[in-house]
Input
Amino acid sequence: MTIIKTIDEFKNIKPCSSLGFVPTMGALHSGHLSLIQKSVEQNEKTCVSIFVNPTQFLEGEDIDSYPRQSEQDLDICKRAGVDYVFMPEHMYSEEEPSVIAPPIKGYMLEGYNRPGHFDGVLSVVLKLLNLVKPTRAYFGKKDAQQLYLVQNMVKNFFLPCEIVPCEIVRDTNGLALSSRNAYLNESELKEALKLSKSLKVASEMIVKGRVDGEEIKSCMLEVLKPLKVDYVAIVSRDFKELKEIELKNSIILVAAHVGKARLIDNMWV
Ligand code: AMP
Output
């Protein structure tokens, strides 16, 4: 496994028949690992990037305390059969053009609560895709809006790369794995289960044919009490708000604060 720390070094990697790419911010867990394993399976070579991207954090967010554990991350990558780990210290110069996320879908839900977050995400993803030039890049459905916006950018900027969506990996108790779960103590971990529980309640309603959006959202909000909820939303797979569940075309999303952590979760129905 080759560790690459600078952009110039990256330019020297040997071409291969197919390169899979998994962009991450590190503090790797089984969710990341599932993306890495899929890439290793589907490609001749796999590259993982580990970069805590400053432009996607807003003023006052957790960039300084974001969990960093490079040695452990490298070990996980090595054991998973990764060929290249790209760990740049810098990705930006002083003055450069930036990518602005689409005005509606980049500024609703996550983008409404974290205005400018997706500008930063798309900027770094565009840089990474142009540098790594992967055949396929792997993104988790856990960050559903990010996945949609990346797919939208790849399509509209004609980037020669296939985006592969990957299923959400959960703990046995239902909690969606996230690097930010590291902020939670034992009692907060229990509170955090309310996110996945609220989605479970929604799925039980849908199974019974109760598909009204307002009704589902209000039952979810009951389950989430007393957490500070940023949003509960129902959107189509291309992020248009839905009044009613459309089977096989809906995503139910939730974002809420637990202790110091802001957590997100979702379910594709
Ligand atoms: P991050 O390091 O949080 O930026 O995540 C890197 C990639 O891993 C993103 O595409 C995420 O959507 C994905 N990811 C994070 N957590 C999970 C999870 N629990 N299940 C599946 N994918 C995940």
Observations:
- The first strand starts at residue 2 and ends at 4.
- The mean pLDDT is 97.
- The first helix runs from residue 7 to 10.
- The helical segments are 7-10, 30-42, 70-80, 110-113, 117-132, 144-156, 186-207, 213-224.
